[in-house]
Amino acid sequence: MKRLHRYSFISRSLPLLLLLVASSCSDDHFTVDPEVEGRSTVWETIKSNSELSEFADILSSIHYSKSRGNTTSQTYADLLNHDQTFTVWAPANGTFNYENCKQLIASGSAGAYKVETELIRNCMARYTHLLSGSKVEEIKLFNDKSAIFNCASATLKNQTITRSNIGAANGVVHILSGAPTYLPNIYEFIESRTDLDSLNRFLKTYEEQVFNESQSTQGPTIDGNITWVDSISYLDNRYFNVINAQLNSEDSTYVMVMPNNDAWTYAYNKIRGYYNYQPEYVQTIVSVDDNGNESTETKTTSYSQEEIDSITRFYINHTTARNLVFNVNEQFGHPYTDFTKPGACDSLKSTWGDAFDDPHSVALFDGKSPVELSNGYAYVVDHFNYRPEDSWLFLEDYEAERYYESYSSCTPLSNRIYTNWSYMTDSTDISTLKDTLIQETVLRLSPTRATANSSVTFRLPNTLSTKYDIYAVMAYNTSVNRPYQFRANLNYHKSSRTSSRQQLTAIEGVNGSGRNFVSKPPHVDEKGQFHFNDSVLVAKDFELPVAYVGIEDAYVTLEIQSYMTSSQRTTYTNELLIDKIVLVPKEKTEE
């Protein structure tokens, strides 16, 4: 049952002398050209090269951003002119769309940030990376993207290096035959698509910039307070932690189903009826101390209309979004290319934790082709093909020993029971017998008096506003070898803001009569299946009009009370063994 990366900039680097041994494609020390040693910085080297005048113009036009929306007065020309060490793979004139970059810069901060991220940061890395030997290494670029630096073929991201190892006082410059290909990550891809606006707006709600103390440069302490000469922050999104998927992390590999705006609207309208909240929840909580003394507390939880609208939107959107992402590395060894092939994967497990069996898992991808991204693959779908029973209409399973709230005329004990039974596996063949050891933990309600009727109340939190079949799963009491007769009441809220106590009635001839429910003894069903527990249906198609998902101090309760008259003492037992309460939700019919 279910409940409700980051990129950083640079720190001070070591002096060049110490960094020379850290080259990525060579074990050799970097030998600086005597003509430029100690005189030309990386920026001066680029600026003085006639092949790189267009790229130099871009570097001098773009101001370095500590994070999106947090731009400094320092240009990239300034940055590459200081003592921090960089390698720059600079695209030669005419090999990248220079005019388009100029237009984006002139369009404003968003355009300039696009050029900064997709061109400048995609062409540089910290430290010195020499072209030497035949090694192939994965480089982390300045925008946190990964790039293959192939010394054997003299390429970076398959772009040919036409001139290499141009030495500078604070690093090295290579000249490329074109700008390295930029691939957005999953989060960036969602941001870039207007047909994904609905998904994007939901995710953006939980975006924030987080101060990165370890990457920031500390200044003097003034009046006991630390100041920061250079404060660095990174992009974070709280919702990524909820679904266990860092969609902006370059170190992960995900497959994500992305409903377009039409598919998102369809899902929203389909799900919204299950989250019907009300302005006020009144909950009466009965607790019992160690001496059996009862105390009653009434809690009232109130919400403004704005709060109701907010919680409703969140849970509808969360229900839509929480199963969209699949971690490629957690799919039982299946590559992402198998996800859409019928029969290739028995099931897929989302990062949220729900499993989708074939062929329903295949339908999620809507027959679309994947879009390759820097940290995975995107499937933009026209239809939301998630079935309610796989995504939000989950069977709710409440273990009795964990969810009982109060009791009377009995002592509750959590017992592990062991019982041997001989039974027929095939009712048509009496010679087929097997011994089975039943082992389970149950809530044992031992009556305080021989004639007392035990009573217990269970809390059933996080229910939806829909119809349920409700079962009380009873373990057979082998100490007396008699079944149970009991009564049940359900307490829940109606839309009128008032709670209601509903007396439940048995299905005649099936599990009792009138208000009296009767459990079955251990038996073999018509299929030869042995049943030690009896799942007693206490309510069928019972509609709970109000949602409790996310409401901490309010929930549905179910009371169960043994009911045994003096003449029935040899027929039933008043010592109840309850395994769990199970709620099976029903899909709403289309109106």
Features:
seven-stranded mixed sheet; Jelly Rolls; disordered N terminus; alpha+beta; FAS1 domain; seven-stranded antiparallel sheet; 3 domains; elongated
Structure description:
Helix 3 packs parallel to helix 5, helix 5 runs antiparallel to helix 6 and helix 10 crosses helix 11. Mean pLDDT is 85; it is low at 1-38 and 424-433. The chain is of the alpha+beta class. It is 18% helix and 38% strand. Strands 4-3-9-8-7-6-5 form a seven-stranded mixed beta sheet. Strands 21, 24, 26, 27, 28, 29 and 33 form a seven-stranded antiparallel beta sheet that branches. The chain folds into three domains: 16-182, FAS1 domain (Roll), CATH 2.30.180.10; 258-391, no CATH class; 396-585, Galactose-binding domain-like (Jelly Rolls). The radius of gyration is 33 Å and the shape is elongated.
CATH class value of the largest domain:
Mainly Beta
SSE-based structural type? alpha+beta
CATH fold type of the largest domain? Jelly Rolls
Fraction of residues in β-strands: 35-45%
- Major sheet attributes: 7 strands, mixed
The gross shape turns out to be: elongated
Radius of gyration: 33 Å
Label the CATH architecture of the largest domain.
Sandwich
How would you summarize the topology of this molecule?
Layout: H1 16-19, H2 42-47, H3 53-61, E1 63-67, E2 70-75, H4 76-79, E3 86-91, H5 98-107, H6 109-120, E4 124-126, E5 136-140, E6 146-150, E7 155-156, E8 159-168, E9 171-176, H7 186-192, H8 197-204, E10 207-222, E11 225-237, H9 238-243, E12 254-259, H10 261-271, E13 280-288, E14 294-302, H11 305-321, E15 325-327, E16 347-349, E17 355-357, H12 360-363, E18 371-373, E19 376-381, H13 388-391, E20 396-399, H14 400-403, E21 404-408, E22 410-424, E23 433-447, E24 455-460, E25 467-475, E26 485-493, E27 499-503, E28 512-513, E29 516-518, E30 523-524, E31 530-531, E32 533-543, E33 556-562, E34 576-585
Parallel strand pairs: 3-9, 12-19
Antiparallel strand pairs: 1-2, 3-4, 5-6, 6-7, 7-8, 8-9, 10-11, 12-15, 13-14, 16-17, 18-19, 20-34, 21-24, 22-23, 23-34, 24-33, 25-32, 25-34, 26-27, 26-29, 26-33, 28-29, 30-31
Helix pairs in contact: 3-5, 5-6, 10-11
